[in-house]
Amino acid sequence: MAAAPGKIRDSIIGYMEACGSDASIKQIMEAISTQLGPVPPSSVRSYLNLNVGRVFERTARGRYRLVGDAENVHRVGLEPAVEHEKAVLFHADCFDWLAAREEASIHAVVTDPPYGLTEYSEKELTKLRAGQGGVWRVPPSFDGHRRSPLPRFTIMTDQDRKELHGFFRRFGALVARAIVPGGNVIVATNPLLQHIVASAMSEGGLELRGSIARLTMTMRGGDRPKNAHEEFDEVSVMPRSQWEPWVVLRRPLEGRVQDNLRKWKTGGFRRPSEDRPFGDVIRSSPTSAAERAIAPHPSLKPQEFMRQVVRGCLPLGEGIVVDPFAGSGSTLAAANAVSYESIGVEADPKFVRLAADAIPRLGSLR
């Protein structure tokens, strides 16, 4: 059944708003097809051409952007903040960096982005510092030790979820533009938000390919009722989370898998060995105290796990792995450990300084 013209229009405009930069007709087709199914190319070209000057402007042959987006183009510094072995880290906003990146110039994305947007607002951080909780769950203790606060995503509002969806839709659109066809996109999330992340990034033009389950004991869930833990000491409000989902997406293939592998070096996952395929369940210990001492980042993942994911994301072991939310540089350290080229982008100068020290030290762990 053909999509209604209004749906095609809304899908095109929604994608272009999320992208924030110009896009080719092919990119627009890929993005809206993930939402609407097959759409006649003539319908897309017709809508674009009829609305040039009013809604869109043509930036080059077959390339368009929304009117006014030219004013929002940001200049991104091209000088790396950190370089070590095959890893390069830029101090920049990742949305600006991705928008400025040449189309189809990266081969995989492995990243652990902000799980949400509201928990780091000044309002919620003030509550956290005062020990009042709010979005943050401030537990009393665990085995006699004070536990670190964790965001409580169960109390997010509809507006919070809408903003989160918009954030990841825009992120997906920018990644879909920068990555080559067949390139893997692997994004850490959590059981409560993975559906939002997956659907939003799919709307940005990426194909959902499943998820990787990191099996590990977390400190999320399992808590007694807030401010009544002694009264209801036999109650867990939610199950203790013992796994962490990493959403797996990719830019649509160009032709068959074998064609894509020959041209772009992407389109699958690298096997750990000839007899064992890459799997979607990876057992993982919590991040060790030694690694946390090297890189005291709030969401640091262990090198043993990161190296498996990073190695697996390039099927032929060739190409550039990008972490747009680089944090302390654990993805880049893992890429160095498996001899891959990598690029990281980090907006927070505190974490850029941390990564400068942590990347070589984490990468040298054996």
Automatic annotation (TrEMBL):
GO terms for molecular function: DNA binding; N-methyltransferase activity; site-specific DNA-methyltransferase (adenine-specific) activity. It catalyses: a 2'-deoxyadenosine in DNA + S-adenosyl-L-methionine = an N(6)-methyl-2'-deoxyadenosine in DNA + S-adenosyl-L-homocysteine + H(+). Residues 106-356 form the DNA methylase N-4/N-6 domain. Its EC number is 2.1.1.-. InterPro entries: DNA_methylase_N4/N6, DNA_methylase_N6_adenine_CS, RM_Methyltransferase, SAM-dependent_MTases_sf. Keywords: Methyltransferase, Transferase. It comes from the Bacteria. Pfam families: N6_N4_Mtase. GO terms for biological process: methylation. The keyword Transferase applies. Belongs to the N(4)/N(6)-methyltransferase family. This is Methyltransferase. It comes from Edaphosphingomonas haloaromaticamans.
